Amino acid sequence: MTRNFNVSNSHQMKWIFSLTLACLLGQGCYSQNNQKTDMDQHKKNDNPVYSRTDTGKAVMKDEDWKRVLSPEVYYIARQKGTERPWSSKFENLKEVGTYYCAACGNALFKSDTKFESGCGWPSFYEPISKSSVIYLPDNSLGMSRTEVECGRCKAHLGHVFEDGPPPTGLRYCINGVVLDFEKAKEAEKHYTEKKKSE
Ligand SMILES: [Zn+2]
């Protein structure tokens, strides 16, 4: 009797042990995965909508934008300000990579569509995709212009003019303050790291 009891007890113990181990492992994997999903390499402190991967609309109250953006970015992105010409570090940048919205992380322009326009602001002839930017008529300052906003968070980016180079003939004149740039090599590294973690 005693022997039988011991055998069954030991089986039971083994079973409980395996179950606990499975739970622990499962839980471990779960939280690790969670961490990796949230691990947006470019996430900005306190900005809950900043993401290079989320394509959903980024909507926040003005007071929240003011809290999470630097005063320079807030002034241009949310108050439609304009930076001084020739003041952007991106104006003459020739590195290969991608330009993102500094307010929400949305991919906006690729470096191969950037050109030297001589206008004093970073200039591109084409956005990354049709939905990466939106267009609004702007009749302020006695001029008839087309305003360009971020397609995800509606940050004011700049204006588009019809005097650009081929193939589009467009010139997207963009405030460098509202752009984040990532070199292609860095992007590739982050992509590989992300793939490994999946
Ligand atoms: Zn944006």
From TrEMBL:
**Required cofactor names:** Zn(2+)
Q: How is the cofactor bound?
A: Binds 1 zinc ion per subunit. The zinc ion is important for the structural integrity of the protein.
Signal peptide residues on this chain, from the entry's feature table: none
Gene3D superfamilies xrefs? Peptide methionine sulfoxide reductase (2.170.150.20)
Any one GO CC term of this protein is: cytoplasm
GO molecular function annotations of the record: peptide-methionine (R)-S-oxide reductase activity; zinc ion binding
Q: Which Pfam families match?
A: SelR
Q: Which reaction does it catalyse?
A: L-methionyl-[protein] + [thioredoxin]-disulfide + H2O = L-methionyl-(R)-S-oxide-[protein] + [thioredoxin]-dithiol
Q: What Enzyme Commission number(s) appear in the record?
A: 1.8.4.12
Chain residues that bind Zn(2+): 101, 104, 150, 153
Output the superkingdom of the source species.
Answer: Bacteria
Q: Where is the MsrB domain?
A: 62-184
**GO biological processes:** protein repair; response to oxidative stress
Q: Which residues form the active site?
A: 173 (nucleophile)
User: What keywords are assigned to this protein?
Assistant: Metal-binding, Oxidoreductase, Zinc
InterPro entries given in the database record? Met_Sox_Rdtase_MsrB (IPR028427), Met_Sox_Rdtase_MsrB_dom (IPR002579), Mss4-like_sf (IPR011057)
Family statement: Belongs to the MsrB Met sulfoxide reductase family.
What protein is this chain from? Peptide methionine sulfoxide reductase MsrB
Gene source species: Hydrobacter penzbergensis
Gene transcribed to yield this protein: msrB
